[in-house]
Amino acid sequence: MQANLPPESLSCDVCIIGGGSAGLSAAAGAAQLGARVVLIERGAMGGDCLNTGCVPSKSLIAAAHAAHVFTSAMAFGVGEAIAPKIDFEAVHRHIHQVIGAIAPHDSVERFEGLGIKVIKETARFISPAELAAGHYRITARRFVIATGSRAVVPPVPGLGELGPLTNESVFDLIERPDHLLIVGGGPIGLEMAQAFRRLGSDVTMVDVAGILPRDEPEAVELIRGALHDEGIVLYEHAKLIDPKKGEMGVSATIETATDRYEITASHVLVAAGRKANVEDMGLELAGVKFGPKGIEVDGRLRTSNPRIFALGDVAGGPQFTHIAGYHAGIFIRNAMFGLPAKVDYSALPWVTYLDPEVAHVGLTEAEARKAQGEVVVVVEHMEENDRAQAERRTEGFIKLILTSKGKVLGVTIVAPHAGEMISLWGLVISGKVKLSAVASMVAPYPTLAEISKRAASAYFKPKLFGRLPKAWVGLVQKILP
């Protein structure tokens, strides 16, 4: 019936395509500032993060952590090391209960309550200044494209025909995989590998390169060992050859530089990269340039059509939910306040939610040496932290990358709850906070976060306990009564 309705014209200040993290944040911000906002989302509100990404993956990881407690409690003299009984249908229920608890915050009802016109249709530009969505024709002072990205299946012959799991389908499983073959050694693949292993699945991972290619080599080595200790089989710098369905699920060959291995798995999960959602949107008609990595934007997130912005994954930059929210803030400052705000990734944090977690902000050592030349590196190990000793979690470290004058360029933390500790260093970098402020702060004892104060203090030790300070102290002691 709706298809036969005559076109209805809408005019607004801001029209947003995509109800994920970037689109919802931009819509809420603009509406609360008094703008007339139209939001178009053809799928589930909340986008990838709520429905198939961050929220379900961290919920699965939480279930896996609970299972792991059973096998690690004996170190504290508690119980005996036994394999936990996993009710995977209940795990599935837990994941979707968490999604359901958060969903009202991203719901149509909430955004309509903010005065936003929500249209559940597919949007397509029909000119540089107008788009169509269902029977609506919409013009706006500003448009926002926030359509996100999706998992891609690498061009391995036969892999696509298997219908492999991706982040869009793996959280719908109600039966635990007996043996999960994961293609891709990035953060998503590794998080799923450890989680499913702790929940009782055999796990094999294969990657054409090395795991966690963006992180510090010391962190990668530690994580590699931790995963190996948990029984995860890693094949790095390896090829997946001739995957096909068999009697036991999926069979394939894994080829490394030195050998070939035959493998049979019950399920295949692809976590080997993502692709921006730019198809069938009429971007050519809108005068918006785009390529394989997404829509081309300038520093203010404007596309080649200055009235159209692109935010989040589709803008071709770092693919993190917190970046999507950050992009929304940049848009609000530009489009609502008329300020020439630009993106700045110098204090970009990211966390891989393994156990231990890997958290990073700013430059790696290699990036800093390339950009700055000589740098100062300070490393403090978690085994020197009293809380870590008490909890028997002494694996890990903090690594500071500094200029010779003590300016912080980058930080990596590998530790339990490292993601909770990295924000301090993001503030240090973005706020240009002096390292001495961290060294002199009073940190509660005993906490894992004390490692940050310890690392900052370590930079000053050579100066504090050098020849001149000692001479001065000696002089003062002679003078004082």
UniProtKB/TrEMBL annotation:
Its cofactor is FAD. Residues 349-455 form the Pyridine nucleotide-disulphide oxidoreductase dimerisation domain. Disulfide bonds join 49-54. SUPFAM superfamilies: FAD/NAD(P)-binding domain (SSF51905), FAD/NAD-linked reductases, dimerisation (C-terminal) domain (SSF55424). NAD(+) binds at residues 184-191, 273. It comes from the Bacteria. It holds the Pfam family Pyr_redox_2. Binds 1 FAD per subunit. One of its GO terms (molecular function) is oxidoreductase activity, acting on a sulfur group of donors, NAD(P) as acceptor. Keywords: Disulfide bond, FAD, Flavoprotein, NAD, NADP, Nucleotide-binding, Oxidoreductase, Redox-active center. FAD binds at residues 58, 147-149, 313. Residues 13-327 form the FAD/NAD(P)-binding domain. PROSITE patterns: PYRIDINE_REDOX_1 (PS00076). Belongs to the class-I pyridine nucleotide-disulfide oxidoreductase family. PANTHER family: MERCURIC REDUCTASE. This is FAD-dependent oxidoreductase. It comes from Devosia marina.
